[in-house]
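Example record

One chain of 506 residues, shown exactly as stored in the release files.
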Amino acid sequence: MRCKKCDYPLWNLRTGQCPECGAPFKPSEYEFSPGSVRFGCPHCEHDHPGTSETGHPEPPQFDCAGCGRTVHVDQMIVRPTRGADETHLLGSMPWLRRRTRGLFKGFFGTVGWALAHPVRLINAVPKNSPVGEALVFALLIALLATFGGGCLSWTMIGIGGSVFFRGAGVFLPFAPGLFGAGQLVLITMGWMLGLLVLWPVLTHAMLRLTGGCRYSIDRTIQAVSYSAGANLLAAVPCLGPYLGGIWWMVSAILMVKAGQRVSGWRATLAVLALPVLLALGGGALFGIGVSMMTAAGFLGGPGGGWNPRTAQTWMINNNIISSSWSTGGTGPAHVIEMVPGTTAITGTWGGARVAAGGQPFCHPGTKTVPADIPVGDMNLKDFLAAPSSAQFKAAAQVLDDLPANMVAHRFGDFVFTYHGAAVNSMDAQLWTVVMLPDPTVNGSPAAGDPVHIGANDYTISEITFGELAEALKQQNIYRATIGLPPLPDLTTVTHDKPAVAPPKKE
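Predicted structure tokens for this chain:
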């Protein structure tokens, strides 16, 4: 039992005032494990056991068994039971009592203490409590914070972004493209390694370097892990990650200070060491990442990469590859299966999986418009305005009309060449999609007109139409080495004439 203001021990005191700082206190303000402390009469010092759930005498006011005078629990002298470690006395820590109180109460009770009473929380954790208990709690917080602050935030950004970009003809991928199960697993692993392991280790090292600390690293792990309860605020989409992170750091500082009995400035320096290093190194890491992505062709480097001209192709390519991770590497039978809009519609029609919505697939700068793109018995413009039942029927008709040996099909200004390939292979040489304006609407391209090629490793390259023939020749040589049929002249691939594999020689 320690002063809530200065952390001074309050055992064996006859007054209700802290002798260190003068702050008033009452025994009823503290909770103990039942039977772990004794309550002495202020008149005769006769001890009475604390038998209630909070470790106090029942009732709180009674006649002393020694002298017969009426006493109240707040007048009594609180002493530890002989042989009891002080850290075992504060037995009300919700998470450690979840087996009797219930998981829900134990979890959210600890979250509440981490937010509002961090010093009380660490004082209620026995020093020899297994650090595994603390790490499990922190991991649950990490999972919830990752899902809420990450998945939901990116999904909201993706939905809003798809509305914003659609007017420019840009296909913005969102779940699962932006934030699939694989990304969630990787981020969770990062949480576990960086925050649940590295942070308390660095914090403890800083305490040792700046003057030492009273207890082992286990106590530091307990403080950092249980203070993670404040980071549950990060589960609030968009704004939560910022508020949760700041609150977590504040709670961690207070809990390290109280848990290791160090000064406030040393606790602050130790806890903030890792966040400061990350902040200082973030710019350098970002620069390195941009350089690597540029070299790989993501951001307009040697291979063309992402730029305002290739943005639409990059996003379409990204969405096709990302969606294939959930289908074992198989791309959609036709891109109509994954046409998204402001509200994705998922259902079945004739056994076909259909996701319908609004993406024009018309590259900026071409003459192609949604009304030029056939979808069954209607065009894409009418398709997007049609009720879901009509969309499903039209999409299913497109799928039913596909030839069995198809190697490429056109939709708008894009020719899709992934059929038969392992779309999630991260193969930098294998084409997924080619932006080549619809010749039916735009006529034959000029030699200097741009052509954008999306590869299986998410990269985009930009060449001219005059260079396409040689690039296609090299692509077919490579396709032959991995057992794929050749692609024809892509200008011959139209909406009503998809490319098919040539008959196998007997």
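Notes: Confidence is low (pLDDT under 50) at residues 84-91, 151-182, 292-306, 340-359.
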